[in-house]
Design brief:
It is a single chain. This protein has about 450 residues and is an alpha/beta fold. The chain has a single domain, classed as Alkaline Phosphatase, subunit A (3-Layer(aba) Sandwich). It has twelve helices and 18 strands. The chain has an eight-stranded mixed sheet, with helices on both faces. Strands 13-16-17-18 form a four-stranded antiparallel sheet, with helices on one face. β17 and β18 form a beta hairpin. It is globular.
């Protein structure tokens, strides 16, 4: 790498599962731009998210902290550092552009950013019921739009986000960090008609789209209502959305090049989680830890002095924030639980022996959420153990059963025991973090009492 500190562009895509990309051998040309970046950059083939939902995965991406360690997932950075704060102290200007309410300033994600565009109106939101009411109204409005006319995606499109990014970046002379989060792949999968034609031989009429959207809304709670053909149609729309987001990434990179901002900008591309299409009984992204939901793309592009390569070592998105501060030549904060990817990129002989952890605080059983049930998964490049409190654990051989259809827990108790030890080690760390959090609360109460 060059001795000059790079600018950093972090691109995250909501709901993008790795196996729907060409660089992961997908059968369709959904991602020519991402594939090109992977081919000419660093592709991590065994990257996993720490969870299967946006709310639980982003504290890891921007704060290198596991969701079960957060004092409050509604304000995950209240008592911990975000990577943006670390970069700010290092002299970076920073901006974020997205339209996901769960990543908005209401949830504390603006912390450390100089500019933060989350698509929400400004104002103070005092009562906690406000969040619930506005979220319900937003969902209701979206559904009404869908049912009346097929609607349009209520999120800010990738094209519009790009315009905001370019407007902010164009006059920057100092090092900058930009985070862009695209929502175009999220339910209800509303691609432009020109993109639908990429993956369907027949044209879908407005009436057909209307019927698909209507059934999709119902299927989110009752997946059995969809036929195989209807699921296939939904996947067509999902893939079309990926192709649109891929074009948005190309447009953004091209505009960086036009502004002479690309040469010294490192680009990191990943997703907060994947998406399910009935593989384990549901659609969208419920709180489960199978690979269609937690295996995500991770690509680093434009690292100066580093040749393109593919890295098959398991890594977690909890390693992104430490990587960003490493790029900025800043010491990793003690609060960050991950490790930088840079040493593994520079040394192809360096090996990472451990696997990755993913977490969920709820378990889906059939169509129901079971509250207060913790699920932990430990995944290596070959094996995965899903440990469910009060329920039968699951062990999968990913080499021979990549779709996770055959539970080997009873057949291979020895491997399950080895992986279970790693989960127990992780839970001890979570317990220590909980004790520290409780201690902070007590100290805060005592401090207020003295006042």
């Amino acid at each position: 790498m060059t001795c000059k500190r790079p600018n950093i562009l972090l691109i995250t895509l909501d709901c993008l599962r790795a196996d729907h990309l060409g660089c992961f051998s997908y059968r369709r040309k959904t991602s020519p731009t991402i594939d090109d970046l992977a081919r000419n950059g660093i592709l991590f083939t065994q990257a996993t998210s720490v969870s299967s939902t946006t709310r639980s995965s982003f504290p890891a991406i921007l704060g290198s902290i596991y969701p079960l360690m957060c004092d409050d997932l509604d304000n995950p950075f209240k008592n911990t550092l975000s990577v943006t704060e670390v970069l700010k102290k290092a002299g970076y200007e920073s901006a974020a552009f997205h339209s996901n309410v769960l990543l908005s300033r209401r949830y504390g994600y603006h912390k450390g950013f100089d500019v933060f565009e989350d698509g929400l109106k400004r104002g103070k939101y005092g009562h906690p019921l406000y969040k619930i009411i506005t979220r319900c109204l937003r969902r209701l409005i979206t559904r009404v739009k869908l049912l009346i006319k097929g609607g349009e995606n209520p999120k800010i499109s990738g094209e519009k986000l790009n315009a905001l990014v370019v407007e902010w970046v164009k006059n920057k002379t100092n090092n900058f960090f930009v985070w862009v989060h695209y929502m175009d792949i999220h339910v209800p999968y509303m691609p432009l008609p020109t993109y639908v034609s990429f993956f369907r031989n027949e044209h879908l009429s407005e009436r057909q789209l209307f019927n698909i959207y209507r059934k999709l809304l119902k299927a989110l709670k009752e997946p059995d209502v969809l036929s195989k053909e209807e699921v296939s149609q939904i996947i067509d729309l999902y893939d079309s959305c990926i192709r649109y987001a891929d074009d948005c990434i190309k447009d953004l990179i091209d505009r960086f090049a036009d502004l002479n901002k690309l040469e010294n900008t490192v680009i990191i591309i990943t997703a907060d989680h994947g998406e399910e299409f009935g593989e384990h009984g549901n659609l969208s992204h419920h709180r489960k830890l199978y690979d269609e939901l937690i295996r995500v793309p991770l690509i680093i592009y434009n690292l100066r002095g580093i040749k393109p390569r593919v890295i098959d070592i398991p890594f977690s998105l909890i390693d992104i924030a430490p990587t960003l501060v490493d790029l900025a030549r800043v010491k990793k904060p003690i609060q960050f639980k991950g490790e930088s990817l840079i040493p593994y990129i520079g040394d192809t002989k360096k090996k990472k022996l451990i696997g990755t952890i993913s977490e969920s605080d709820k378990l889906v059983r059939g169509k129901l959420f079971i509250e207060n049930t913790r699920v932990i998964a430990y995944r290596t490049s070959r094996w995965k153990l899903i440990q469910k409190e009060k329920y039968t654990s699951e062990l999968y051989d990913l080499n021979n059963d990549p779709l996770e259809t055959k539970n080997l827990y009873e057949e291979n108790k020895e491997m399950a025991r080895v992986l279970k030890k790693e989960i127990e080690k992780h839970l001890r760390m979570i317990q220590l973090a909980s004790v520290s959090a409780e201690k902070r609360k007590i100290e805060k109460v005592l401090k207020l009492a003295k006042l």
